């Protein structure tokens, strides 16, 4: 009973995290000690500069001390063959914003060529009014017979159509989308 009360009192979330980290660290060391073959870790598995003098055992330090002093540096070897081209690096940061250009000529609409298109549906869903060819939507609206809640409106297909998405109170509700198009 005393152990159970002590665990309840002292087993806090930080303590649980610390115990989990200790378990992971000890399991890795235990694996290395019991599963790796003797002398299976050598130069290919160790990065240059990763082992320091303090990491070496006494017998290795003794053998190194017996080896003698380092000799003079040898001559530089011949230049090797050119290696394969490396992979493309990450994209660099964006450059500074350029100078603002001149204001363009005002756009004009030939109001004699403006026409309207409609799309009607019954019940909830979406209705899309689309202009002819490459003509552009310049204005759009919708109307319904009963209670309707518009969910989303969007101009799409390069500005050539207008879509409204609806939620209708009744499946028999009639909804009409009307868009005015200008010839391009």
Task: Describe, in short, the structure shown.
This protein is of the alpha+beta class and 184 residues long.
Describe the secondary-structure layout.
Elements lengths: L1 H9 L2 H23 L22 H9 L48 E8 L2 E6 L5 E9 L3 E9 L4 E8 L5 E9 L2
Antiparallel strand pairs: 1-6, 2-5, 3-6, 4-5
Give me some keywords for this one.
three-stranded antiparallel sheet, 6 strands, alpha+beta, 3 helices, 184 residues, 27% strand, Immunoglobulin-like
Low-confidence stretches: none
Helix content estimate: 10-25%
Name the structural class: alpha+beta
- Arithmetic mean pLDDT: 82
State Rg.
38 Å
Strand sequence of the main sheet, in spatial order?
Answer: 1-6-3
- What shape does the CA trace take? elongated
Give the N-to-C terminal Cα separation: 86 Å
Oligomeric description of these chains: single chain
Number of helices: 3
Task: Explain the overall architecture.
With 184 residues, the chain is an alpha+beta fold. Among the domains are: 1-32; 111-182, Immunoglobulin-like, CATH 2.60.40. The chain contains three helices and six strands; from the N terminus they run H-H-H-E-E-E-E-E-E. The protein has helices at 2-10, 13-35, 58-66; strands spanning 115-122, 125-130, 136-144, 148-156, 161-168, 174-182. The strands form two sheets. Strands 1-6-3 form a three-stranded antiparallel beta sheet, with no helix packed on it. Strand 4 and strand 5 (161-168) form a beta hairpin. It is elongated, with a radius of gyration of 38 Å. The N and C termini lie far apart (86 Å).
């Amino acid at each position: 009973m005393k152990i159970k009360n002590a665990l309840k009192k002292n087993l806090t979330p930080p303590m649980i995290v610390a115990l989990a980290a200790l378990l992971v660290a000890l399991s890795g060391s235990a694996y290395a000690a019991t599963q790796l073959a003797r002398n299976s870790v050598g130069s290919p598995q160790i990065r240059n500069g990763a082992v320091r003098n303090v990491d070496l055992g006494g017998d290795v330090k003794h053998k190194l001390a017996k080896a003698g002093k380092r000799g003079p540096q040898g001559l530089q070897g011949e230049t090797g063959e050119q290696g394969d081209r490396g992979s493309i690096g990450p994209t660099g940061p964006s450059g500074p914003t350029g100078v603002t250009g001149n204001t363009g000529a005002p756009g004009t609409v030939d109001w004699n060529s403006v026409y309207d298109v409609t799309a009607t549906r019954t019940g909830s869903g979406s209705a899309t009014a689309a202009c002819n060819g490459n003509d552009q939507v310049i204005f759009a609206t919708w109307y319904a017979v009963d209670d309707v809640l518009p969910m989303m409106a969007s101009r799409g297909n390069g500005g050539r159509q207008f879509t409204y998405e609806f939620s209708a109170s009744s499946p028999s509700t009639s909804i009409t989308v009307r868009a005015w198009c200008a010839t391009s």
